[in-house]
Amino acid sequence: MIKAEGLRKRFGKIEAVRGVSLEAADGQITGLLGPNGAGKSTSLRIISTAIGADSGQVLVDGLDVRHDPQRARLGMGVMPHDAGLYPRLTGRENIRYFARLNAVPKAEIEARIDQLSERLEMGEFVDRPAKGYSQGQRLKTALARAMVHNPRNLILDEPTSGLDVMATRALRELIRDLKKDGFCILFSSHVMQEVAALCDRIVIIAHGQVVARGRPQELKEQLGTDDLEEAFVRAIGRAEAVQEEGS
Ligand SMILES: Nc1ncnc2c1ncn2[C@@H]1O[C@H](COP(=O)(O)OP(=O)(O)OP(=O)(O)O)[C@@H](O)[C@H]1O
């Protein structure tokens, strides 16, 4: 369970995140949806402790990430926007390195990697250097790495970006399976169809602020349309109108 309250983050003159609050429950898929530059990655980076917020609070399974970042991190698996693999290491070595960082008992590491490699259908490439990986192979390795310490909360930043149709479908299936297993999944996307296909709850963000939230059906009702894509466009349009009034 992830709970963020009043997150704010400024980079010089740019206020990237301006009071974002959101909740992602166990056994649910929560989508953070917004156009380019809306503040999705920054919010997820704050939640996953990659960067600190200027203000606001993040609780992961009730633990305040600022007070106990190490313990909070053990409860989270994070797949950043750029997979961030070490190119000279093989997939297995990348995953093993993370397992050690996250205090997975040495005796369990190889079995865990084999299990994940099978679940994610990594095949022979897991033992090849990451340097030559395709985008899909990079993502699978990054996901295995995020899951190696068996965290209950998964944070995925644009997980399907750059994947072909088949790989996107496979990843969606996997995310649905993880949901059935009770994981709390929070992922970001700028593609409405992507979020519509997967999410139980959607949080729409624009200009660093949450502009609408709810189940897909609730969003359609709130924004007065039967079409989820149109609902997204209307929510963003309203945020832009408010932004222009204020400037
Ligand atoms: N390290 C940084 N230094 C300066 N500005 C930054 C930094 N990180 C993010 N920003 C700015 O903050 C704003 C929000 O960026 P962010 O990456 O969170 O958006 P996003 O919603 O994830 O966008 P995208 O869909 O394009 O990845 C943007 O204007 C971006 O340029």
Automatic annotation (TrEMBL):
PROSITE patterns: ABC_TRANSPORTER_2 (PS50893). Keywords: ATP-binding, Nodulation, Nucleotide-binding, Transport. The keyword tRNA-binding does not apply. Residues 2-232 form the ABC transporter domain. Pfam families: ABC_tran. The keyword Metal-binding does not apply. GO terms for molecular function: ATP binding. SUPFAM superfamilies: P-loop containing nucleoside triphosphate hydrolases. Belongs to the ABC transporter superfamily. This is Sodium transport system ATP-binding protein. It comes from Natronospira proteinivora.
